């Protein structure tokens, strides 16, 4: 992980200059705090770029996406913004 953290910190300025937009997929909350900060800095520094999109998956699985979508839908049902009958495949995929 230290190598990835070093790369994120050292290459972010080059990404900004070249118009590369960076984003990280996955649950970053379990990563070391210093790596979380490097990821956030890289994403913030490059978020306005419109060139190549560098997507990195860390601590990621399809289950993570399913869990996040399920939590989002359950929260909407709990808050009365959505009825159980309204839940279908297209709603699940868009969450």
TrEMBL record:
Alphabetical list of InterPro entries matching this protein: UPP_synth-like, UPP_synth-like_sf
Record's keyword terms, sorted: Transferase
Organism lineage string: Eukaryota, Viridiplantae, Streptophyta, Embryophyta, Tracheophyta
Keyword Ligase: no
UniProt keyword annotation of S-adenosyl-L-methionine present: no
Gene Ontology MF terms in the entry: transferase activity
Domain of life: Eukaryota
Any coiled-coil regions, as ranges: none
Name of the protein in question: Uncharacterized protein
């Amino acid at each position: 992980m230290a190598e990835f953290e070093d790369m994120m910190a050292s290459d972010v300025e080059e990404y900004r200059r070249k118009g590369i937009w960076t984003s990280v997929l996955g649950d970053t909350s379990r990563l070391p705090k210093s790596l979380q900060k490097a990821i956030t800095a890289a994403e913030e520094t490059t978020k306005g770029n419109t060139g190549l999109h560098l997507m990195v998956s860390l601590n990621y699985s399809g289950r993570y996406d399913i869990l996040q979508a399920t939590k989002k839908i359950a929260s909407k049902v709990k808050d009365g913004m959505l009825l159980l009958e309204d839940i279908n495949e297209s709603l699940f995929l868009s969450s």
